[in-house]
Request: fold
Amino acid sequence: MYNAKAYSVASSTSPFAPATIARRDLNEHDVRIEILFCGICHSDLHQARNEWSGLMPTVYPCVPGHEIVGRVTKVGPAVTKFKPGDLAAVGCMVDSDGTCPECRAGLEQFCPNFTLTYNFPDKYTGGVTYGGYSDSIVVTEHFVLSVPSNLDLAGAAPLLCAGITTYSPMRHWGVAKGSKVGVVGLGGLGHMAVKFGHAFGAHVVVFTGSPGKKDDAFRLGADEVVISRNAGEMQKHAGSFDFILDAVAAEHDINAYINMLRRDGNITMVGAPEQPLPVSVFGLLFRRRSFSGSIIGGIAETQEMLDFCSRHNIVSDVEVIPIQKVNEAYERLARSDVKYRFSIDMASLKSE
Ligand code: NAP
Ligand code: ZN
Reply:
């Protein structure tokens, strides 16, 4: 084991503070990465504050962060894909059993024995996993992604969660040229969905509760923007969407969006509010609509997404911050005041 620098929270109400954590020494398939940038996902906030206590209670101290890009510093003897000096990335998962039908299908995100990047039992150390608000991480090769060299690294970090979480369901539900696509909530995930929808050639309509984000929505690639509290504007789109991606992190009226789907249209929830959402079944019965969920994406698809971003010059719009500003960043994220992802410059951790 070796000591790594990190920022952790000691309880659901504590601010982040500098910490030292133990990371494992390299096993033969392991890659050690010096972390350069780590995005701040709303899931980090949910977990740091124990907002998912029912499903995934937070183990403290907690070091969040699953949007990691960095440079390989060491590799184990059996590693074939990476060498020291390579750019590399790690997303929300760091391990899975590799043998179940889901893993064999390249859908590690559904493996019953996967390991999430933080706040998850760590089968190597016997403790809990620690995420990317840290200066380094050790991950088995299969869960390390290659970062195309033309991507800005601070903006590439959020692709590892916000990117794949929106890319994967859009691909799964066949978003393509001519599709009419809705994106609900213009945050970290939502703004990536707008960029992907635009790149796939879809007609993209953004639903936002923040009128101040309207110009940005157009700049990001939206064809139309609807202020969600405006009933008249909402009504105009009734029964017209092929696909809607809902990336809202809090309780809200899902039925208003279900009613906007056309026959056989689908709404996929990627936002993860803690409380159940009441769904009016009649909205689904009429027009055979479907309501589903999606979680991140498999490793092969994550690499496909990174390569797609490389070809289409897509990265996240980021506000780069030093780690010392992480508490302030969380307050702003809780207020939907971020354009559109915080990306922590991990060089700032060196001065701790
Ligand atoms: P974010 O940056 O905070 O964006 C969420 C957006 O939702 C906000 O910008 C805001 O958009 C809207 N919103 C917030 N509160 C709202 C409310 N009370 N009513 C209606 N709209 C509201 O968060 P994020 O990082 O994109 O994450 C979004 C959600 O996805 C979180 O719950 C997160 O845990 C979850 N998530 C899921 C996965 C997965 O695999 N399924 C992966 C990552 C994250 P407007 O200002 O435009 O209204
Ligand atoms: Zn995330």
Observations:
- The pocket of zinc ion (ligand 2) is lined by residues 41, 43, 66, 161 (CB under 6 Å).
- The chain has eleven helices and 17 strands.
- Residues 16 and 326 are 7 Å apart (CA to CA).
